[in-house]
Amino acid sequence: MMTIQQMTQHVISKQNFKTLQEYEDFALAFLDFVEGGLQARIVCQNEVNYQFFQYKEDCGYNISRPINSDLFGTAERFGDSVKIFNRVLTSLKSHQQPNDETRTVFNSVVYTLQQSIGVILDALPASSANQAKKINGDLFERLIRLLVTGIGVDCSAGVLHVPVKDKSGHVIHKMNYQHDLIGKINGEIKFLGSVKTSSKDRIDKIFVDKLLYSRFTGCTTPYIAVFLNDVQRAKSKTFGKQRVNSTFLAGHFKAYTMKLTPMDGVFYCDLRPNMKTDPFLSEQIHSIDQLFYDEIKRFVT
Question: Partner of 36 at 20 to 30 A CA spacing, among 172, 177, 233, 249?
């Protein structure tokens, strides 16, 4: 079993996460550690399906980000879940539709792979917070690209040079647009996307990026957004009384969708409750399985 020190050192080197197998191996190691290596598990006060992991003295009794216990795997079951997960990817790559009963497992595995990394980063001292945030975001982007590649679609991050033309059609300038996802089939761009751990402070930019790209190019290339979650630990003055706050701005999302441009797909690993109950939001926002089971094949055909 890896120690907490070994895991923190492992995760801060992004070179240790080049393949999907390496993500899976790390998550299994972390889940084994969780079984007996924590100081405590703290149940969220206002949303009881969330819990927080508290580390021991050697990590300053740090308390982790909130973890959705409905999605997060366990050491006992995760190995079997990963086998199902990998079979799903193989089926999708072979253009075979997996059984809908596997969607819950798929969502759980993706969430667990990423949150295992995030929770370990929470064991680092506060002085490393900015570094940890950067690592977490980069590894989530890489995970999504690996999954897209895993179902047979060429996917990379990169910069596209967008021509800006005058009224007569002459190119007067080129703008550089960075994209987290550039999905291609036989060299032809089929979709673009942004991948973020949270929509907090980013939701407006994603809509504007899609709008400007389509306006400048005249293309209708599908543009999607993928988020891990929109929940964070709330500040608490009482030890052991931990709560969560939502970072999702429903009003902003609705306004941008209606008045700027609708996204061609918005996908979350951990949906907020109003994304399921609000008729407008539930039509626009979906769980991560829908991207892989349904939408990508629509984009590339």
Answer: 233
Residue 286 token pair: 């979906």
> pTM of the entire structure?
0.95
Query: Please, is 238 exposed, middle or buried when counting C-beta atoms within 10 Å of its C-beta (0-12, 13-18, 19+)?
Result: exposed
Domain region containing 201: 4-300
Task: Find where tokens 């003055």 sit.
Answer: 237
End-to-end CA distance of the chain: 45
Q: Kindly report the number of other CB atoms within 10 A of residue 161's CB atom.
A: 8
Residue from 238, 232, 287 nearest 265 by CA: 287
What is the distance between the alpha carbons of residues 191 and 221, in angstroms, rounded to a whole number?
6
Residues 39-81: pLDDT tens digits? 999 999 999 999 999 999 999 999 999 999 999 999 999 999 9
What is the sign of the dihedral through the CA atoms of 75, 151, 12 and 122? negative
Q: What's the CA gap between 150 and 87, in Å, rounded?
A: 11
Let me know: does 84 contact 77? Beta carbons within 8 Å: no
> What is the gyration radius of the CA atoms in the chain, in angstroms?
20
Domain count, the chain: 1
